[in-house]
Each structure stands twice: as structure tokens, then as C-alpha cells.
Amino acid sequence: MAKYKVGIVSLGCDKNRVDTEILLGSLKNKFEIISDPKEAHIIVVNTCGFIESSKQESINTILEMAEYKKNYKCEVLIATGCLTQRYSKEIAELIPEIDIVLGVNNYKDVEDCIRDFYENKQKIILCSNSNEINEGERVISTGNNYAYLRIGEGCNNNCTYCAIPKIRGSYRSRSIEHIVEEASSIAKMGVKELIIVAQDTTMYGIDLYKKKVLPDLLNRLSQIDDIEWIRLLYCYPEEITDELIEVIASNKKICKYIDIPIQHISNNILKKMGRRGTKEQIVEVINKLKKKVPEITIRTTFIVGFPGETEEDFNELKEFTENIKFDNLGVFRYSAEEGTAAERLNNKISDEIKIQRQNEIMKLQQQISYNNNKGKIGMVYNTLLEDENEEYYIGRSQHMAPDVDGIIYVSKVKGINKGEFVKIKIREALEYDLIGDVYYESSK
Asked: What is the pLDDT of residue 49?
């Protein structure tokens, strides 16, 4: 079937991106993979179904790709991912232009389904439940500088607002051997940064090894010669151990950066959310991190407008934001997800108040970020140059995750190329970004 061209549109989180890359890996030897869906005979949309806005984006994207069957070369439209895992029959009925509907456990079946559809011309719906982990050869879609490394699948946390356990199942860790093997393969492609992801990275190993072994995994990964940075995302605060903090502090390859999805700080709301930790525990672990790793960058996310969130609860969250002064912060408005415990809660918050509270926190964080950045003027950072325009190189330090955090604009000089690590001295601060110049050790 090599004559057929396949285009894939990937939506949602970085864990979904890994699925897309595995899907590409399974197809690349049988089909021609292209980046422009207008040229594709087969279009795959890997959907997200996490919150209402992402579900709507997924549906809109599928509808857009359905038009390609009329106006371009598309012969087969495939929808897969979290949204189809939750609503396979509904999606198939809502958008009859879809030819194949696959769930999150059926990526390995895509080639057979394509072949069956071309032979029989009948709609296929295949959304099974499985305890397997989606693994396989990947086509890295993030360029030469960084790649996501998924260490586990599913989640055991059962937060009352989240449907992920219903979609992805219970927590399953990949073996250390498989992860290190994949990471070594990625490093041989020239990738310099590994970004560790799972629904909850701090629970890694609890099922496979009967204990949390994320520190052990990080130490093994750091032994891969060609990897320069290892970045940690999605570390739940109540599971951040002293051992993990010590590894972040002492291992030179581990970025002094951590993503901690806190979601709220009011004990009243944390309890309603089904979160395991308390305000006191969260504050304690943040203080430990800052004391043990003074240069650490902490990113977090909040949810505002959760059912029953009072003005007092919200003000507590604002005060917490002012006191901690997070380096990076995202705010989501609560979205009632079908089948979750929170959907049944009373005291719903209006959309107007949700938007107002989101804007208040983000306005506050904007000023905090600017003040934090001003404190970096004069500092020197080892910076990975990833892109360029006519005036600047565009790079990141170890304190910046791709796509979600700021960047460093670097004034162009001769002899410097994209893909290099260069020492940059910061000379100007913006609200989220920095501007700097190449730093020469001998300069005074």
C-alpha cells in the first residue's frame, strides 16, 4: 500500500503526541507519511477528550478533515484517541464521513483496518479495553532537540474532575529496561533533551516494582552519553520524596525544573477534588525544593470555578500565588466531565465567574513572571538554540520547557548555529520571555 499517502493531525497533550509518533512508526514502512493533509489519501486525527474545549477542538478538526474528502485527495478518514475511546459510537454517528474509529488501545490495528476498509468499504469501529501499554518504534515529530519519553500509562489517582482513568485505565509502568532502550535510540537520532511524561510521573514503578522508583530511572537515563537534559513533568506534590529532590539537586543532567500540577490550595476544594494532599503538604514540599535546589524553576496548573469554590477559597488561591511566586503557571476553568464524581456536585460556578477568576490569577501571574524575569538580568544560562529569525536566535535554558514556557531571544553573531548549546547573558526581561547576548568567558 506504499502508493497511499498518510497525513496525521495530533491534538491534545504530549502523551497523545507520543501515541501519534508510535502510530507514525507503525505506518512509515507501508505508507508515505506526509505533513500536508491536503495531499493525503488517508487522514488520521488523534483526538483529545480531556475537557470540554479540547473535545470541541477535536470535533471541529475532524469536521475540517471531512471536508478534505470533498475538496482534496482524502479517501479514508480515521479518528482515534481519547475522544473516540469515550464516545466511539456517538462520534461515528455524529460525523458519518469518518470511515474508521479507533480507541487508545487500538493504534496497532490501524494498518489492518485501513486494508480492510479498502477491501470492504465498510465503516470500522474498534475501541477495546486493554492493560497493555502502547509501545513501538516512533517517528519523532518534535525535531532534533527534544523528545517526550512516556514512562507509564493510565492513572490511579481518581481525582473527581478527571476522566483519564476511565479512558486510559489504571496506572501501568513501563520497565526501566524498555525505557532506557528507547531513550538510547532517541539519543542516537541526535535528540539532546528527554522530557519525562506520564499522567503521574512520581508514581512510576509502584505497580511493576512494588515501590516508587523514579529516582532510579532518572539516574539510569542520565548515564546515556548523548543526552544533555532530562526534564520532569507532572510530579504530584504528595509523591515528591526527599530521594527525588536529592536526585534533582545532585544529578547534573536533571534540569533544575519541575512541573507540579497542584490544581488548588484550599483544603476545602482539594478534598472535593479528591486530591490526596493538603495545603500544608504542598507548601512543605515546595519549601523543600527551594531550599535543596535554590535555582529550581517550578511550574504548576490551577483549576478555578470548581463546584463549591467560594470567594474565600479563591482568595486563598490568589494569596498562595502571590506568596509562592511560581515561575510558570497555567489556569484552567473547571469543565464538568461526563461520568466523573464532580459532575454530580452542587453549587456550580457560573461561566462568567470562572472567566473572571481565571483572568485574575493570570493577570497576577503576569506581573510575577515579569518581576521574576527582571531578577535574571545579568545572569548567564546555558541555552539550546532551536530556531532563528532575521534578528535573533530563539532558544531555551534548562528552566524552560518547550511550548508552554518562555523563550530566550539571542542577538545574532557569526559562528553560532541552531542546535548548539551556547552561554547567554540576559540583558532584558519581558513578561514571559528574555533577551540576551552570547557570553564570552573572558569578557569583563
From this structure: 85
